[in-house]
Amino acid sequence: MRTQEQALRVYYAAMPDTELQHAVINKGSFLPLAQKLLAEEMQRRHLAAEPPPAPALAAEGHGMLGVLRHAFRH
Q: What single DSSP character describes residue 52?
């Protein structure tokens, strides 16, 4: 069985750069462990905390959240 930390590491590692940068916007609502691992993944990829100007990916139903929604429905 995976630990929460392992699952979050895999989740963040699988996210495209733009989605990871968008996730930073809401990091204040994340658990402390999730915030820490998100920051580590951002640093590992040398990404800035500011997301690039683009429409919200989750609102379009695409991206990692859309993939997860689809996976849980089927």
A: P
